[in-house]
Amino acid sequence: MRRHEARLLADKPKPGNSAAVALVLAGPPDALHLCFIRRAQREGDHWSGQMAFPGGRAEPGDATPRDVAERETREEVGLDLREAEFLGALSEIWIRHSGRVTRDVLSPFVYYAGGELPEFRLSEEVAEAYWVPLEHLWDPRNWTTIGYERLGRPVELPGIRYGQGIIWGLTYMMLRALGEILEAPLPGE
Q: What CATH number is associated with residue 42?
């Protein structure tokens, strides 16, 4: 992560059009895990019920995107990232809705929460939270595709099966970016 320089989007979003997430690693170096959530079912939420990283939209009191990621992670799963080791940022991503790029920007940040897997305290926004072994994420047997409609056309998007869910979309894109930094491409790449 220290060699990686995150690409920031030149055209910054208006306040309220930015979001941030935390990719939280934990566990011993030879058995790292990554924190994922399954979002609760909520009407009007484009990502309702999907697997994701903890995070959410910026609020007026958030000074920086990193503050957003830390606040949202604390609220959603009870992890205080102010006590974690900050490893760096991934490049910002334009958020898409139904295949169309919006003016919304997602800022991902990577942390290491220590050698033990911390307990989660879930908010009502989160149905479940998991510590997924990196070994599982890079195992080709867990790779899959998911059918999706983009601009009225069916497409197959890459994903990773975990339990009853599939890690795909923006979450998969950030995981792929992390793999590129670690020089460990995901199995479907």
A: 3.90.79.10
